[in-house]
Amino acid sequence: MKGKEKKAVILLSGGLDSTTVLAIAKDQGYFCHCLSFSYGQRQTIELERAAAIADKYGARHLVLNIDLGKIGGSALTDTLEVPKVVRNFIEDECSEERIPVTYVPGRNTIFLAYAMAWAEVLGAWDIFIGVNAMDYSGYPDCRPEFIKQFERLAKLGTKSGVTQEQVLTIQTPLMYLTKKEIILKGLGLNVDYSLTHSCYDPDKQGRACGLCEACQLRLKGFSEAGSVDPIQYQGGKGEPDVESS
After folding, report:
1. Do 219 and 89 meet the contact criterion of CB atoms below 8 Å apart?
2. What is the average per-residue pLDDT within 35-39?
3. What separation in angstroms does the CA of 55 have from each of 87, 123, 141, 195?
């Protein structure tokens, strides 16, 4: 029955991780409500991909407009240059113990707050987010400690939490997986990764640069998974635009 559906809100960016999370939630029997944001990011190809992905999975898709570009402070929302990594993505680790310029201040806190509000209205007691503490870029709002504390906030700051009607749970199925393991998990669920977008600095045709940290982690993951990345890169399919150094 309609009222008995197991519902979830999925934070869907159109990227590899969030698409895998959507596939996991669907596989677990959730009726998925996908939430994306036009938040002042320098490129909108990810929103086009998110819409296509939500449609493929038969999920409801809501896009909210918030302008974090007015705040700035990130290479993803401001005029700061997106760092490019010219090195062998197979042999080198891309993540370091530092917070990069691509970190968007407050982004996951803001996204989860909106997801929490929508979940309460929907009667959805699970929020899925593709944060990861293994192959990640050093963002503080991707850590398990952050997710745990946000769950506490939701319990204190929502009607359902205060009345103890239901406890909101934030699901992080990718938290302790490497990019290789995420990709293998997705391939096992028949995820079409050609629909996804990860690049921080695509060209006007939407092709990935192959050199930003997001591209490097993605390429490294596909290589280690023994698979070819099906998206288009500026140097060709599954290939960065320059020779590895």
Report:
1. yes
2. 97
3. 37, 22, 28, 11
